[in-house]
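Sample intake sheet
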Amino acid sequence: MLRGSSALALIIIFIFLTGCSSIEDVPQEDVEPELPYTSISFYISVGDPEKALSEYEQASVKEPESEETRLLYSRLLLLAGRLEEAQAELDKLVAANPQNTEALFNLSLIEGIRGNRAAQKEFLQKLIGIDNEHAQARASLGEICLTPIFTGLLTATLNPIKHSK
C-alpha cells in the first residue's frame, strides 16, 4: 500500500507543479529574452574569434553604441589579433569616458603585445589611479617593474658560468 501511496503522491505533485505555471501565467516582461551573446561565448571558447566577431556584428544591432557592446567588440578584435582596430575602438571608449578602466586595461594589453613596456606601464598607472584595487592591473604593473630586475639577476648569475667554461 505504501508504494501506491508514494506513486500517487508523486503524480499529485507533478500535476500540481505543471498546473501551477503555464506560459500564460507569466507576465511577458518577466520572461528573459534569449541572450544574444551566447553564441559569441561559444565561438570564443572553441577558439574561433573571427566567427565570434561575425556573431557579435549580428547581435550588436540592438545596442550598437552602448559602452558594454563596444568594449566587447574591442575584446573580440583583440582576441582575433586585429590590434589596430581594437586600439581604435578602445581609444574612442576612453575619449568618451576617461574613467573606463576596462578599456585602459585592454589598451595596456595591446601595448604589452607590441612590446612597448613604457606605454603599457603608463596605461596601467592611469588605471590604478582610477581604481587602486584593480587586481589585474596591479599584477601586470608588478610584472613590468620586476622583469628588468629578474633579467639583470639572471644575466649576472649566468655570466660567471659562461666565463668559467
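Comment: The first helix runs from residue 2 to 20. The radius of gyration is 26 Å.
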